[in-house]
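Researcher: Please predict.
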Amino acid sequence: MLMLSKKEWFGNPKNDILAGIVVSLALIPEAIAFSIIAGVDPKVGLYASFCIAVVCAFTGGRPAMISAATGATALLMVTLVKDHGVDYLFPMTMLVGIIQLIFGLLRLGTLMRFVARPILHGFVNALGILLFLSQVHELIRERGTLLARAAESGHMAPAIWISPLFVIVGLIIIYGLPRIPKVGRIIPSPLVCIIVLTAVCAYLQPGILTVADKGKLPDSLPHFLWFNVPLNFETLMIILKPAILVSIVGLLESMMTATVVDEYTHTPSDKNRECRGLGLANIVSSLFGGMAGCAMIGQTSVNLASGGRTRLSTLIGGVGVLILSVFLKGVVGQIPLAALAAVMTMVAIGTFRWRSFKELFTLPKTTNITMVATVVVVVSTNNLVYGVVTGILLNVFFFTYRFSRLLSVDVQDVEEGVRKFNVKGQLFFGSALKFNAAFDSLTDVRLAIIDMSQVRLWDHCAVVTLDRIRAELQRTGTTVELRGLSPENEVMISKYSELRQQEEGPDGEEGEKLTTA
């Protein structure tokens, strides 16, 4: 365990420290933006990013994963803050943490195994598209802001091509630097991109937007704060619904992000520990004036692309947010948003699974439909959860359809008036109609032998279908004999025997039990 701990923390120190710095620089403007979305002071998002990242570094189940304040959770807080005020945000955040902690203690993180690979690939592809579109929208929004400022001041707005040019130069640095022999990989290229473009921006003063334009950075360190609202039933009713929504969205995004990192690094993660760790992180955040958060696939991708692999990178990322935003805010405030846009564009390009285009012609249609539907729903709604749920529902439908086709009924005439039905496969609600059709138009048969030795009954519908067939045949004077019932099938039949009797009625021969042999 000690060796595992050392490997999780200090297996890659230089790259982890540098990657953590890149992450912290990218986290600051996003934390400010998410605070604005939620309708709170920017320091709420910054304090949350610090607390959540640091706590998850120690308690989370996935090394190198970045958790902080996110847009997905911030959107769910808007109504609460607007209707009841920011004071209710902090107890809501604590309740989110408690719910997530309970999820982890109940080991519900194992439910992630039901998220199929096409859904995961659709999630990743949609995320890459959303990250790219978000940077395009950011550049468009920046242009609008600069034009508005120019109109107010009467000065000429900066040339429209300056910010896109910065992004292009940044991408050249990011992709070109690693190709330089020996020196190209000493420092992560995204960090070099930010440093170079910040220096150029400070020297040329092109008038483009910087981190300082996103919002005011905090003047002090976070400190312990207790809630300013009464902890009673009325408060619980106010915060319960948003807390449940935020906790579910946060857990789903964190589990999906952990799975993506598992694939990228070819190492496993502990999903239940991640649930518990995120819950503890949100509880701590609520006590230091922060809002709820979860894993950030974008910043996690930045960390991985910059060389981060252990918990140290997560810790540096969280601590870096606090140090940079409080003690070095004068320097951080000069970072052009175009430099961060270049980094996020690199992440978007690296996140998208480009081989998905080839797989459209090689993988089964149902797999491709699930993947494409997940992408379309996520991109059209800008909500990762909707896309994942859509993918899961489609996958369940396709699985049920394929599972139902496994059932077959082979009919043999043993002798005159005796017919044998050899049933193979799975009998459940999806295959019940197919099973029932095998016994249609059965005439001149005095004995029907149903061989159940190679079939499995899965649900109540299977038992009811079997009983109704038996009842219908008996009404026409045919005796039904079941053979080869497995212990599991016998348990299933006996479990629902009382319900069958209620459906068939207490009187008459229809209430008799199945004849078995």
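Model: The domain at 408-516 is CATH 3.30.750.24 (Transcription Regulator spoIIAA).
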